[in-house]
Amino acid sequence: NAGVTQTPKFRILKIGQSMTLQCTQDMNHNYMYWYRQDPGMGLKLIYYSVGAGITDKGEVPNGYNVSRSTTEDFPLRLELAAPSQTSVYFCASSYPPKSGASNQPQHFGDGTRLSIL
Amino acid sequence: AQTVTQSQPEMSVQEAETVTLSCTYDTSESDYYLFWYKQPPSRQMILVIRQEAYKQQNATENRFSVNFQKAAKSFSLKISDSQLGDAAMYFCAYRSAPQTGANNLFFGTGTRLTVIP
User: Fold this and answer.
1) pLDDT truncated to tens, each residue of chain A (117 aa)?
2) For a 10 Å CB count at each end of chain B, is N or C smaller?
3) What distances in angstroms separate CA A87 from CA A22, A38, A97, B11, B93, one per listed residue?
4) Which residues of B touch A56 (CB under 8 A)?
5) Which residue of B has its CA nearest to A41?
6) Interface check A43 vs B, CB under 8 A
């Protein structure tokens, strides 16, 4: 089972460059998320999507954009890379939460380590 | 946003011994979910155990169990018979009951567990 697949695993960017972090899942999950993990910190939500064509901001959206044209894919774009965006980025997906039912956990990709120099 | 606090940046345990990792959270909600995730050096985020707030019984998964104290807003993880493979960063996470919006996870800053042979 592939689960959640992120590419690339590592990337070094120069300040001002742009790039897209790819995320795809094969579990037919409606919900998808992008988190960032800074050194010594927990994960923080950047953007999320509850289904194809629907996206919304999380806690730390500045400097990022997303799109969700299909259920499977949820790419994250950095338009003008800044040193503050050096981090490890995680994509996650889940079924819609169901009230009263055993909670659907989020499945995570292996992360993308991004350095901006 | 809900806050999750892990007051132990680092912990160590002798192999085969028991260790308890602490987690507290702040919320005004009555229905929610709590999770412990393990992050080994490979960076994967692996779900260890989950607890629904409406359940009084503490969750257990093999050598892993929780002590959920709802009134105290405490959710500690106990690892029994510690193994070398348990060495990792452990994150406590909170998720609201199903509602419109992100239904994302809020993470603590993590506890790095070292297992001593």
Assistant:
1) 679 999 999 999 999 999 999 999 999 998 999 999 998 888 999 999 989 999 999 999 999 999 999 999 999 999 999 999 999 999 999 887 665 444 567 889 999 999 999
2) C
3) 15, 5, 28, 24, 19
4) 101-102
5) B109
6) yes
